[in-house]
Every structure is written in structure tokens, then in C-alpha cells.
């Protein structure tokens, strides 16, 4: 039975010295904002080029199917945008051929080629060996990897069962490494593989970091201690060198106001826009709140007694498309907010004491790594406090059938509203007519309000 009881605690140690590994990636390790994980592919290429170890990469059939579905969705969107832009250029007199429309089979074939190019191969789903009855039981009882308050988690369950089958049947002399950003899934793997010598990491970067430490004979718990040295305590790198303020200063120097961000957003390459069709060409971009998320810390190199580390921080800055001051104190789910995400790498160094503590920390450099922009239709904009759900707790997505239907309907209305605003903004005469109608309405309100008060008295 595949759903056997097994468990392994996530740890940073590689007690046995293996030189051959098979790394199995979860969908969230393969996915980014465009479903074309350039960062992951770069990490894989870098690891192979560094020759840290003999590493093979695998994805389960479930993960590959999910990735191909979203890859296809994004490819169709890009094709549609390209045809629209080419059509506009031809209307302007430019002689451009429309791009060939790819069918589903061709797109899938191309997507599989992208994975194989980066040495990522499929582990087929063992349909005939999965205990579907017990899987249904776990879903009904909301047991891992299913969500505790719902039956969501079928994809994770099939992914986990495929991994379990692969591990139990594999006779290859390669240590298995599982990579997943999902904490719950890591816990489920921990439960599944207690009696197996398997490593679990939240990111591929942390696995590569551990390989580098191993090559310098610096294993043990240095990886965990470095994570803590960066973010925990008053003497941490984060506090000692005021890293958050350095990020804000860097960001504000590059985008000093809403207009600077707007001009940047409108010229950004399409691959950096998560939902480009939802971002209207609006001139009023008001900066609101922001947030910081600390990512993984990786070991880079050793020079003498000094160890060099890199920590990723995800910075998000929210912008509103307009102030809507008429709705005083109201939390607006419409209009859409724009979220600008910038990835920063913090390079820092330290020494390891005789007891392997991280000491003598030093800040080296802050580097902007990557960025992308997305539209958030339910950001909870509150102009009274200048905040969104980046800095306030976001209410849970509705669970009931009626609530879900309403939620989807509101999302669709919001998208259509943004498209309508885009048409208005691109048509000066229409925009002026609407503004004139608003002015007339305001003047009429001034006249009718006193009359209304007299009627009430």
C-alpha cells in the first residue's frame, strides 16, 4: 500500500557522503509568476556547471501536467497579444506577418522540450499501483497532504504517491532529494519517509548551498545557523545593518514617485507582467503600503576564514490606480491595485567560531535581482490608512458554493471594468464626455440636496 506510514524531519545535514543525487521538484519549485521558471532553470544550469555533484532532476507526471497546462495557457496569451499588436501595426502601414497559431499538441511538445533542455525528466504516475480507496479516505478525513479544513490537495497527494512509488521501486545508487516550497507537503514527506535516508529542502538553492558547504568540509548545522544569523536577534544582519531601510532607499531612488513607476511599468517587457491585460494605462499611480518576505539563505564561497552568504528578500510595493476620495474610509476591492514585486539579494559575510557559531557578521552588497508586476483585483485598498492586504490580514477566500460563485463573478466584473477603463483612457473624447457628465451631475446635486433637506424638515 503506497500510503504507508513514514516520516523524516527536515534537516540541513547530509550525514552520508553521496556524490550522486536525484532531485525531485514540486510544482511550486518549478513555477514562478510566468510558469516559465527562468530562476529555477538558471539555478539548475549553475549547479551543473559548478559540478558540485552528479545530479539528475525529475518531476512527477502530476507536476509536469500542471506545468504544461499553465505553460500552454501563458503561450496562448502571448500568441493572442502578439497577433493583436501585429494587426495594429499592419493597420498603421507596417508590413508584418502574423505569428503562426500553435495548437495544443505543438505547445505541449515545445514545453516538454523546454524541460528536457534543462535536464528535467518525468516520473510517470503509477495509476495501477495507487491505493485510490485510501486516498479517498484521507481526503474525507482531511489528512495530509489534504488541507485541514477542506478536501483540497489531490494534486499534492498524487505527486506524493508517485514519489513514494519511485523511492520504493528505485534500485539506482542515487540519494533522493525532495524540493518543495510547501511546508505542509514537506511535513507530509517527513511523515512518509521516516525510515528512508532522504533529504527534504524548501528550495533548490538551499540544497546547492549544502553541497557547497560539503565541498568545503563545513557541513553540520551551519546552514540553519546562517539563516538565524541573518534574521534573528538584535545582532542579526537584518537589524545590525538596517537592511529593510536599505531596500526602501534603493527602491525609492529608482521609483521616486507614482509617475516614475508608471513610466517604468508601461515600458516593461511582457514577460515581467503577470496579468498584463488587467493593468490599464492610467496616469494616477499612488504608492500605498509595502511588505518584506525573507527567502532562503545560501552559502556562496569560502575565502580564508570568512564565509560568504546570500539571502533573498522579496519586496512588494502596492500602487492604487486612483484615490477615490469620495469613498471616505471605505475599503475598496475595486479598483484593482498594482503590486510591484522586486527580488533583492543581500550579500553578506561572517566567520565560524570553533563551536561553529556565526560571528563577525559584515554587510557587503544589496543587488536587485529581478522584478515583475501583477494586478491584484481584491487588494482591499483603504485610502484612509494608505494600506492594502500587503500589510493587513487578508480575509479567507470564500468556501461555499454560493460565495465562490459570487467571488468569481466579482472578479469577472472587475476585469471587465478594467477593460472598460482602458477604452475610456485611450479615447480622449469619450473620457472628456464622461468627465463633463460627472460635472453636470455634481452641479445638479448641489441644487437638489438643499431641496431634499427642506422636504425632510
Short description:
The protein is built from 14 helices and eleven strands. It has helices spanning 27-30, 38-50, 61-91, 104-117, 132-141, 154-169, 183-192, 204-215, 222-231, 237-240, 243-254, 258-266, 401-425, 428-456, and strands at residues 20-25, 54-60, 120-123, 175-179, 199-201, 286-303, 306-320, 331-332, 337-352, 358-376, 381-382. Strands 3-2-1-4-5 form a five-stranded parallel sheet, sandwiched between helices.
Count of separate DSSP helical elements: 14
Main sheet summary: 5 strands, parallel
The total number of structural domains is 3
The CATH topology of the largest domain comes to Rossmann fold
Uncertain spans, ≥5 residues at pLDDT below 50? 1-17, 33-37, 323-334
Strands, total number: 11
CATH class category of the largest domain: Alpha Beta
Textual characterization of the structure:
- With 457 residues, this protein is of the alpha/beta class.
- It folds into 3 domains: 20-215, Rossmann fold, CATH 3.40.50; 222-395, no CATH class; 398-450.
- It has helices spanning 27-30, 38-50, 61-91, 104-117, 132-141, 154-169, 183-192, 204-215, 222-231, 237-240, 243-254, 258-266, 401-425, 428-456; strands spanning 20-25, 54-60, 120-123, 175-179, 199-201, 286-303, 306-320, 331-332, 337-352, 358-376, 381-382.
- The longest helix has 31 residues, at 61-91.
- The protein starts with 19 loop residues before the first strand and ends with a helix.
Amino acid at each position: 500500500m503506497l500510503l504507508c506510514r513514514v516520516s523524516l524531519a527536515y534537516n540541513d545535514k547530509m550525514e552520508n557522503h553521496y556524490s550522486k543525487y536525484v532531485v525531485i521538484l514540486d510544482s511550486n519549485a518549478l513555477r514562478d509568476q510566468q510558469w516559465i521558471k527562468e530562476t529555477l532553470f538558471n539555478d539548475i544550469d549553475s549547479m551543473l556547471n559548478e559540478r558540485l555533484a552528479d545530479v539528475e532532476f525529475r518531476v512527477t507526471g502530476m507536476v509536469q501536467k500542471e506545468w504544461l497546462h499553465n505553460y500552454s495557457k501563458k503561450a496562448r496569451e502571448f500568441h493572442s497579444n502578439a497577433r493583436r499588436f501585429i494587426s495594429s501595426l499592419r493597420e498603421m502601414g507596417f508590413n508584418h506577418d502574423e505569428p503562426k497559431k500553435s495548437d495544443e499538441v505543438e505547445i505541449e511538445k515545445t514545453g516538454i522540450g523546454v524541460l528536457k533542455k534543462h535536464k528535467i525528466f518525468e516520473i510517470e504516475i503509477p495509476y495501477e499501483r495507487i491505493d485510490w480507496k485510501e486516498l479517498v479516505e484521507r481526503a474525507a478525513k482531511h489528512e495530509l497532504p489534504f488541507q485541514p479544513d477542506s478536501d483540497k490537495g489531490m494534486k499534492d497527494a498524487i505527486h506524493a504517491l508517485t514519489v513514494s512509488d519511485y523511492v520504493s521501486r528505485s534500485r539506482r545508487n542515487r540519494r533522493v532529494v525532495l524540493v518543495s516550497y510547501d511546508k505542509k507537503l514537506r511535513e507530509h514527506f517527513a511523515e512518509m519517509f521516516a525510515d528512508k535516508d532522504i533529504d527534504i529542502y524548501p528550495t533548490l538553492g538551499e540544497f546547492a548551498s549544502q553541497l557547497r558547504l560539503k565541498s568545503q568540509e563545513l557541513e553540520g548545522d551551519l546552514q540553519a545557523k546562517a539563516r538565524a544569523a541573518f534574521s534573528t536577534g538584535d545582532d542579526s544582519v537584518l537589524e545590525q545593518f538596517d537592511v529593510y531601510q536599505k531596500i526602501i532607499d534603493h527602491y525609492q531612488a529608482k521609483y521616486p514617485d507614482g509617475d516614475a513607476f508608471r513610466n517604468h511599468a508601461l515600458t516593461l517587457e511582457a514577460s515581467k507582467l503577470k496579468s498584463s491585460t488587467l493593468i490599464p494605462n492610467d496616469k494616477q499611480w499612488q504608492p500605498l503600503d509595502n511588505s518584506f518576505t525573507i527567502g532562503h539563505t545560501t552559502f556562496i564561497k569560502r575565502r580564508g576564514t570568512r564565509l560568504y552568504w546570500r539571502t533573498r528578500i522579496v519586496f512588494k510595493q502596492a500602487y492604487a490606480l486612483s484615490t477615490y476620495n469620495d469613498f471616505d474610509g471605505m475599503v475598496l476591492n475595486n479598483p484593482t491595485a498594482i503590486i510591484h514585486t522586486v527580488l533583492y539579494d543581500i550579500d553578506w559575510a561572517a566567520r565560524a567560531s570553533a563551536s561553529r557559531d556565526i560571528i563577525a557578521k559584515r554587510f557587503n552588497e544589496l543587488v536587485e535581482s529581478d522584478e515583475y508586476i501583477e494586478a491584484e483585483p481584491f487588494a482591499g485598498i483603504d485610502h484612509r490608512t494608505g494600506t492594502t492586504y500587503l500589510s493587513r490580514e487578508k480575509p479567507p477566500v470564500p468556501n461555499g458554493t454560493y460565495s465562490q460563485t459570487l467571488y468569481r463573478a466579482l472578479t469577472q466584473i472587475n476585469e471587465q471594468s478594467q477593460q472598460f477603463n482602458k477604452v475610456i483612457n485611450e479615447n480622449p473624447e469619450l473620457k472628456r464626455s464622461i468627465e463633463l457628465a460627472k460635472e453636470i451631475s455634481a452641479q445638479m446635486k448641489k441644487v437638489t440636496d438643499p431641496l431634499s433637506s427642506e422636504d425632510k424638515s
